[in-house]
Amino acid sequence: MKYFQLIDRPLVTEKTNLLREAAVKTYVFKVEKTASKDEIKAAFEKIYDVNVATIRTAIVRGKMKRRGMHMYKRPTYKKAFISLKNGQKFPMFDEN
Prior knowledge:
This protein is α+β, with helices and mostly antiparallel strands. 25% of the residues lie in helices and 36% in strands. The N and C termini lie far apart (33 Å).
């Protein structure tokens, strides 16, 4: 798989902002459902030129939602929690 196809987008919520600002510096991204941890690590190191320390993944099941009398299901996706080695930062999250 191509590196740019594995990474969809960063997930920016209040909870992920707290993780990013904590001492561990964990960044959360939405990734391809079929991607393995090794593929995700290689993609992040190649695209963003950072050294990845650890990766945790979670599959988020889609919720059932309702609009009027119609029911539909949101899609299922996979998210990756990425911790970088000391002194590393993602360029897109650099506050300076």
